[in-house]
Write a structure and sequence with these properties.
The chain has 228 residues and is α+β, with helices and mostly antiparallel strands. The chain has 5 helices and 9 strands; from the N terminus they run βββαβββαββαβαα. The strands form 3 sheets. It has a 4-stranded antiparallel beta sheet with strand order 4-6-2-7. A 3-stranded mixed beta sheet has the order 8-1-9. α1 (42-54) crosses α2 (103-119) and α3 packs across α5 (202-222).
């Protein structure tokens, strides 16, 4: 049970979106800033692509546990000095996708957008590279551990913990990949995650500890749930 999702003990995460991190690279030709017409500005060529990307939507069928796929432009790098035409530029994207989606198709969509950009500008040279990939995960909602956790949240804290999927990523991915059953359940609010002075109520933390104690007693001592 991974306490890394927030939602104030009112949700159990049984699924997580997948993640791909992508680099979009633009190649140009350097020149002096006083004669930009002698070079090819890789930053402007990248901006042409990013303007198309702003309106791009990843095709997908909606799923009840998830919000739609997301695409975040997180980093732009390019150029060395104001008086130089930059010969290279790079944008880094964070894309979250749903179970059943193929990350290769996501990359194919970005590559098609790059080709479209280059077709309108012979000087544009763009390439896409997948830097990192994490597959989505989804568990059956009727696993005994989930039912036990819901029952103890109700009995101890009067919380109706409903099932949800996450856009973020937790270590449940690594545990599931290693054959360990794992879900997310936690005190604290999801809206304070990663903000300055992230915090959790002490009273809620105590409730969480009591729920975990009750779950552990039943799971291991009383044998109500198989640990397999």
């Amino acid at each position: 049970i991974i306490p890394d999702i927030g939602y104030n003990l009112e949700r159990i995460s049984i699924a997580e979106k997948g993640l791909v991190k992508v680099a979009i690279r633009s190649r140009g030709k350097s020149a002096h800033g006083s004669t930009p017409e002698k070079g090819v500005n890789a930053v402007w060529k990248l901006i042409d692509f990013l303007n198309k990307l702003r309106d791009y939507r990843i095709p997908v069928e909606p799923q009840p546990l998830f919000t739609p796929p997301s695409l975040n432009l997180g980093v732009i790098r390019g150029g060395d000095a104001p008086n130089m035409v930059p010969s290279s530029a790079e944008a880094l994207l964070d894309i979250r996708f749903l179970p059943g989606m193929d990350p290769r198709k996501i990359m194919a969509g970005l590559e098609a957008l790059a080709r479209e950009t280059m077709a309108h500008d012979p000087e544009s040279k763009l390439e896409c590279e997948m830097l990192e990939k994490h597959e989505p995960t989804q568990l059956p909602g009727d696993h005994p551990l989930i039912s036990l956790l819901q029952a103890k949240a109700r009995a101890v804290a009067n919380k109706e913990a409903r099932l949800t999927g996450l856009s973020g990523i937790t270590v449940t991915k690594q545990l599931l990949a290693g054959g360990v059953m794992a879900v997310g359940f936690a005190p604290g609010g999801a809206d304070v995650a990663h903000i300055a002075n992230e915090w959790v109520s002490l009273a809620e933390l105590v409730l969480f500890g009591r729920i975990m104690g009750a779950v552990a007693l039943d799971y291991f001592s009383l044998g109500e749930v198989s640990a397999s």
